[in-house]
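Re: the 310-residue chain
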Amino acid sequence: MSGVDLAVELCGLRLRNPFVLAAGILGTTAPLLERVARAGMGAVTSKSCGPTPRAGHPNPTVIPCEGGLLNAVGLANPGAAAMVAILREARTRCAALGVPVIASVFGETAEAFGDVVRTLEAAAPDLYEVNISCPNVAAEFGRPFAADPAEAARVTAIVRAATRRPLIVKLSPNVSDIVAVGRAVVDAGADAINAINTVGPGMAIDIRARAPVLANKAGGLSGPAIKPVAVRCVYELSRALPVPIIGTGGVSSGEDAVEMIMAGATAVGVGSAFQYRGLDVPAALAEEMAAFMREQGFTGVAEMRGLAHD
């Protein structure tokens, strides 16, 4: 990237560029995480892991819709005990490339989050992402923890007590005041925030079959359609809170990533872009961002951060 430096610092760790693989995308095995790291990602996130194995929802679980994707995978995962070996191998493979590994965790109860993290400590991930915001299993687990500042803070405090590693808390846009939730988790010990998870849930109906397309009927909306919502959330959170923000939601180009950074993001989550642009999208995003920076006279990412603020 001649003439520009894309490196950023996230929770004390150096990322060669601001792009972070979003949880749930190609994060199921160590070889896949390594593949994404080799493709040029700055950091990678494993698929969200809970205390026990979950089969998830039956197919179809991911479908295209106007402006994005609807997904209702249902947090399928092998459980924390089995995830230890996956994360340990992934960290070894990715450390050789200088790429940090983020372990995403969830729980049916606040206490379960702590149990999962205590189990995964044996794998020594670089950071944890606390997924308190998945909308796809709300009918099973009740209202997402991200819907209430007090509950969000309680989960964060429990996880904070279980590890000294940096904590990223992933927030939902489906709330009336995302800054209040963000402030609560930071006060409880979060080191960074990921904004946002999917929007919705939403639904698509096959008018000839006269039935919902997703087996789960409803699912979270991701992709380009949610980028304006994500940008607004990043903007509000970064103005109010003293921690780094990972801006996630609909980033499909290098200039989309610049928009997130100018809204105040330190790093940028990438997920649905793999669906649209293939496995080589990290390198493409990095080159597109670098081209914009050269055109506009920026030499480092930090020079662009928060420029859209008043």
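The radius of gyration is 18 Å.
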